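Today's session is about reading a structure prediction critically. Students often jump straight to the picture, but the first step is always the sequence itself: look for stretches that repeat, for charged clusters, for runs of hydrophobic residues. Only then move on to the predicted structure, which in these notes is written as discrete structure tokens rather than atom positions. Here is the chain we will use throughout the hour.
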Amino acid sequence: MNKHCETPFVAKDKSKWYIQFWYKDSFGARKPYKKAYDLNKADYLKKVGNNLVEINKTERKSHAQNLVNSLKNSLLKQYFNPNTRLFESLDKADLPFIGYLKDFVNYNPRKKRSDNTKELYKSYNRVIEEFLTKRNLSAIALNKVTKELVSEFLLKVEDNGKTGHRDNYLRYLKGCFKYCVDYLEVLPKNPLQILNTINNQDSETNKAYPSELLELVLAESKKLDYHFYLLLRLIYYTLRRPSELLALQYKNFDFDKGTISFHSSIIKTNRTLSTRLPKHLLEELKNNIPRGVKRDDYFFGNVGRAGKKNEYIKSLFASCKTPFVHFQDKFKTIQKRLNLEKGYTLYSFKHSGIVYAIEEMQWSDYDIISYTGHTDTAILGRYSRDAKRPVKEHTGTI
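Below is the predicted structure for this chain, in token form.
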């Protein structure tokens, strides 16, 4: 389809990077197609005096390779017009699915979408795009998206402990395809019509632990695996998701200030956040930092496996990232040992931390939203349903 185009690659001009490929125009002249995307933003380049210094080189290299792969897919799926320098398709359903997702954000079915709704939908799109990119499907056409592919994505969401989110994503994707079928009329039918939500609205999930049960679970986890015990307490005090904590590296910690920086790339709500640790937990972490730790070492990382059960050799910081499923298995062991009721989960530690912040620390909804990075108070209902705000007495009032 694009015999006039050569293979895309990463082009570098000193510290600045670009994604580029060569093509021949209608007169046979060889010309470059060059685009920076977001490779030269502040996440990757830092100004020092009059010079630009490269930072986060590993992440930048990985992102650049994903962009190269995406451009390769575009050249396989679409025609690159050398006159307009645009990718084209004869059939609108052959256009990239991701483009329709982005358009759907601004679609007004009955009333104008609120800014909060748009931000939520954009966050959905980022997660979906990441899933497709990891499978080299970032340029997949709308008419190539099947219910099997969507089911695989939903299963991944559910496996990450987000059953409720799984249903939210399904409703969102169904709405997008309905938009393509009924409004744009670029598809004959909705491929997700037979996929159903799990409908666990009435079941209690991720419910907060009563204080006695919380202490019991922590005590049992300490016996089982010290690093797992530390992780549970970090979830409780930082109000962060396990996957977000496991994505941290040593460079994200400032042990002098007692803070952790969470970059937007690892936060579900795509916001850069900073978290302050309690003094007792800060000291415990400092005392467990291994010798020779490196900036890119992962939090709760590992250096390999050993033993009959092929158990990870974990360290507070280590070169290899420990998969989330490893800690999920640890929690399953705790569930069996303590015969925990259904609804008490790994994510319940975050829920319990929010309840503690509301009841004991007297945090407002705004305080919690600022700390967790959520965009509005609507999501707070699920987390704070077990909390009872203290009643403030005012003299001179009845």
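Discussion point for the tutorial: The chain has 13 helices and 14 strands.
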